[in-house]
Each structure stands twice: as C-alpha cells, then as structure tokens.
Design a protein that fits this description.
Blueprint: H1 16-25, H2 35-38, E1 39-42, E2 47-49, E3 61-62, H3 68-72, H4 75-86, H5 93-99, H6 105-108, E4 126-129, H7 155-164, E5 170-173, H8 182-194, E6 199-204, H9 212-218, E7 223-229, H10 235-242, H11 246-265, E8 273-279, H12 287-297, E9 300-305, H13 319-332, H14 335-340, H15 342-350, H16 354-370, H17 374-380
Parallel strand pairs: 1-4, 4-5, 5-6, 6-7, 7-8, 8-9
Antiparallel strand pairs: 1-2, 2-3
C-alpha cells in the first residue's frame, strides 16, 4: 500500500503505516477513510460536502433543505460510509489510488476518536467552513470565487453552525480567500471564545499584505497548518494561472515565516507553513524547481494534480505529449523527488492505454531501483 506518498504531509499523529495497522486492529478494510465519519464541509451556495478532494460539486445535501445534523446522517453520507465499511469503494476509487488521501496523517489524527458506523450518534469532529466565495484573485482553475457571499449571515444558518462548534476538534478554511473575508474573523472570535482548543487549517492564496489585524487574529487560535497555494515560480506563468503578482505572494510568504518565529517565541503553535503546487499544463516543468525552492525555504511542498477543468489539465494532452512528460520526469527527477511525485505520475500513467500503462509501470520501477527511491518502490510493490 502507499505509505510514503503522504509521509511528507505528516505534521503529527500517526504515520501511514500506523494508520493501516489501526485499520486492521479495528477490523476495517485497507482502503477505509475516516472523512465521511468525521467531516462536513459547508459551501458558499448552501451545498454541504464531506471531502475536500471530491471538490465543492460533490454534495451530500443542502443547508437550505435540511439541517446540518440531518445531512450528517442523511442518505448521501450513510451510503458513502457503507462503501468504506464494506471495502467496496467506488465514490473515492480514483482519489484513494492516485492520492492515498485516506492515509493522510494530517487527517488521521482524528482516527482514534472516530466511530466507524454508518449512523453517527455524535456530531462531526471536523468542519470545513467555506462560508462565502469572496476572493481577491480569479484563478482560472477555480470557480468558487463565482459563488455567493452572504448566505450564512442569515441567523437560521449561523445558529446551526454555532451549535456544532463546541464539539468540533478541527476547522478548515479553504475556498475563496479566507483572509479577505469578514466571516473568517467572525469565526476566529467565536471559536476562540467557545472552543479555544480547536485546531485550524487555513489554505490561502497569500495574495494580500500580512498586517497587525491578521497577526492578532491568528494569535487567538492554535494553527495546525497554514497552506499557501503557489502554482508557479515564474511571474508570467503565475499571472497566467492566478491572475496576480508572484512578487506579492513571495513577500507575504517571507512575512509569514517571520511571524511563525514570533509565534513560537510567544509559546504559540507553529503555523505549520506549507506550499501547495497544483501541477497543470503550464507549470508541469517546474516540479523540480518547486522541490528545490521548498528545501531552500525549509517549507514542505504538497504536489497535487489538476483534474478539472480538463482544458488546463495534463489529461487533455495527447497520448504522445503525456508520454513525453513521463519520459522527462523519469529522466530528470531525483530519487527523492520521484518518491514525492507519485501523485503526479500515477494519474498520468493511469490515463494511458493498458499496454502503455504496463510499459511505464516497469520503466518507473527500473528508474526507482536505479535511483534508490525507497518511497517510489514502496508504492510500486503492490502495483507491478
């Protein structure tokens, strides 16, 4: 099974190997995932999801039609849970294969608290709170900035949310741009008052100026991870993809690193700063460059694969072009980076005809053995 694909995400808690051992000890299948048993994600248009990897379009209910607790044990989530309990995963089949997201150490810190049952008697442990689509960028691969702003200002929705907050262990802010949204600061004030131990993960585009207001807000909360989405180190490519200024983000990243040091000096949690690099048609050649950038900045880099919109994805390229990218990666990536890049290599290989797939799995194994890539070989063991 894929242990090392997600090792670079581990900030604390169980390792991927330990996660699978825990699955076995509790009689759960290897491909079990705790997310449908732990998480609700609220979207700006009132739709409710559970998994960030499934995206904002994979809804299990609408807050305009049912209460959050009704959705929590509604037919959509119960069906999803049954798949994982029986080991008959269909909804997340691609995600578990390509991303091994069910073994993510960051998410599985909650595993000891999860009840692996179709019907959940307790409220969700994690909330993704994407309460509006307001954003200061118009990233070409994102549609969340087109979504409403203000739905959760209605008391009937906010009161439902407040009822869950005392029970929540983790909060995650994803969509729009959290640091330009008034809801973010309202949430921080509220949760820091009624549930100060709740841990926060915030994904940001970093395209704003770090200031005293942001520092004061962050000082109130324990931060698990602050993830900066940075899809190119080339100013022109960055502007093409995100429509903003790379210089602004790099300066802000520097200020966040400095603030992180101040947090630690004040005995607050580290920000757990990380960079997310979304690989797509216009930046795939920067994979090695991001690796070196992360090492130089002493920051972890998530490498993720763009599936949609298809027009910007590597999957829209011809077979010969996709094979050319694979050949480039296999020839140029170091053994270390090869192991960290399986989330990019796997969907590319899986997109090829069966005969070509077999050819590239064998090529990948030979290259991994030659470059002594332990992580890549750990993934390949059950695959080839």
């Amino acid at each position: 099974m894929v242990f090392q694909m997600v090792k670079d995400e581990a900030a604390s808690g169980l390792s991927p190997q330990e996660i699978q051992k825990e699955f076995a000890l509790r009689g759960l299948p290897d491909d079990f995932c705790l997310v449908p048993f732990s998480t609700l994600i609220l979207e700006p248009d009132g739709q409710v999801g559970s998994c960030r990897h499934k995206g904002s379009d994979f809804s299990v209910g609408s807050i305009m039609e049912r209460s959050l607790l009704e959705i929590w044990n509604g037919p959509g989530l119960r069906s999803w849970r049954r798949e994982f309990l029986k080991g008959e995963v269909q909804t997340c089949k691609t995600e578990t294969r390509h991303r091994a997201c069910h073994l993510c150490p960051r998410y599985n810190t909650l595993f000891p608290l999860v009840s692996p049952a179709e019907w959940q008697s307790a409220p969700p442990l994690r909330l993704g709170l994407n309460l509006n689509g307001h954003c200061n960028l118009r990233c070409r691969m994102c549609h969340v900035w087109k979504k409403p702003n203000g739905l959760y200002s209605e008391p009937r929705y906010w009161s439902q949310l407040e009822a869950l907050l005392p029970h929540v262990r983790e909060v995650e802010l994803l969509s729009g741009e959290p640091f330009v949204q008034k809801d973010t600061y309202r949430l921080i004030d509220l949760i820091s008052r009624i549930n100060p131990a709740c841990q926060w993960t915030i994904t940001t585009n970093g395209h704003w100026k770090f200031n005293q207001r942001i520092e004061a807000a962050l000082d109130k909360i324990p931060v698990k991870n602050l993830i900066v989405s940075l899809d190119s180190l080339n100013p022109q490519t960055y502007a093409l993809i995100r429509g903003g200024s790379l210089e602004v983000v790099l300066k802000n990243l520097e200020l966040l690193v400095q603030y992180d040091r101040r947090r630690i000096q004040k005995s607050l949690s580290s920000l757990g700063l990380k960079i997310n690099f979304l690989v797509q048609k216009d930046n795939w050649a920067e994979l090695a460059g991001f690796h070196e950038f992360g090492k130089a900045q002493k920051l972890e880099v998530f490498r993720t694969f763009l599936y949609e919109p298809l027009e910007f994805s590597l999957l829209s390229l011809s077979q010969s072009e996709r094979e050319g990218i694979l050949e480039t990666y296999l020839a140029s990536l170091s053994g270390e980076l090869l192991g960290h890049s399986m989330r990019i290599l796997v969907p590319l290989i899986d997109s090829l005809p069966k005969l070509a797939q077999c050819e590239y799995w064998l090529k990948l194994r030979n290259v991994a053995e030659h470059k002594k890539s332990i992580q890549a070989l750990a993934f390949l063991a059950p695959s080839v």
